[in-house]
Structure formats: C-alpha cells, structure tokens
Amino acid sequence: MAEWAHLPVTLPIDCVTTAIQTDDKNRGAFVLLGNILSEKGIGGFYKGIQAYTVLCLKPAIQYTVYEQVKKIVLATRRVNRAASAGGGRSAIVVGEESLGAAEAFLLGMVARIVATMLTYPYLRAKVMLQSTYGNAKVKPTIPQMISEQFSEGG
C-alpha cells in the first residue's frame, strides 16, 4: 500500500527525470517541466502510471520469493539433520533455525533478481511510454508494448 501511496509525488519527478535523460537539446529541468505542463497538462506527469501499478509489486514479489525459498532451505536443513540423527531424538536446535549472513545475502540477491526479471518488461514499457510515445496521438497500451518488445527480441 505504501508503495502506491508515493506515486502522486514521485511519478511527476520520474517523468521529468526521464525527459531530461532523453532530451537531445540539453534543456534544463525547469524548461522541460514547463514544456510537459503546457503541452500535456497535469496528466503529462502521469504517463506510464499503469506500469507503475505493476512495478509497485516488485518489493512484494521480492519478499515473497525470499520467504518461500528461506522456508524451503530451513525445512530441508531440518530434514537432513533429522535423517543424520537417525531414528532417535531430534537433533534440531532452535537457535540454528535461521540463515547465516552469507546465506541471507545470497538468498536476498536471488529474490531481487527474480523480482527484477518479472517486473523489467513493465519498467521498459514505462520508459518507452514516457519517451518514445510522448507526443504520439495514439499510444499503445502497456501489454501491447510488452508484446512488441518480446516480438522484437527484447
């Protein structure tokens, strides 16, 4: 929820940032801000908001992947310890039911990679919508842009 709450403030900033990065005339931020406002009105600052709604899910995807894989790793560790202890008492020690620092780091890295891979097409579509199709009268939808990206090889 918090990820969506900041959009009314950060989306215009991101739109101006994208305009600065794609401007071939090296105009300043205030000039570009004025251009966007005069040409497209307030709505010009919210191009790509459909993609942002999906991009806001990236932290949730990352957290979910991290927690699910962590659960699998710890369950596997418990099973392996129980199997190595034989049929007798359980060899599970409560303090050892967590990941080490290196394991947590690597697992976080993997979770971030998965979340980025899942949301990158939307990020690319958002940037293309803000830059390439900025002045076009007919703009494709986000799913159409993603389909176009995949058909052109990425």
Concise synopsis of the structure shown:
The chain has 154 residues and is mostly helical.
Protein described:
It is a single chain. This protein is mainly alpha-helical. The protein is 69% helix and 0% strand. It is built from seven helices and no strands. The longest helix is centred in the C-terminal third of the chain and has 31 residues, at 101-131. The mean pLDDT is 84.
Main attributes?
154 residues; mainly alpha; 69% helix; elongated
Topology, number of strands: 0
What fraction strand?
Answer: under 5%
Determine the N-to-C terminus distance.
Answer: 30 Å
Helix and strand sequence:
HHHHHHH
Residue runs with pLDDT of under 50 for 5 or more positions: none
Count of alpha and pi helical runs: 7
Cα gyration radius (Å)? 23 Å
| Class derived from helix and strand content | mainly alpha
Helix proportion range: 55-70%
- Average pLDDT for all residues: 84
Which term fits the overall shape? elongated
Largest sheet: none
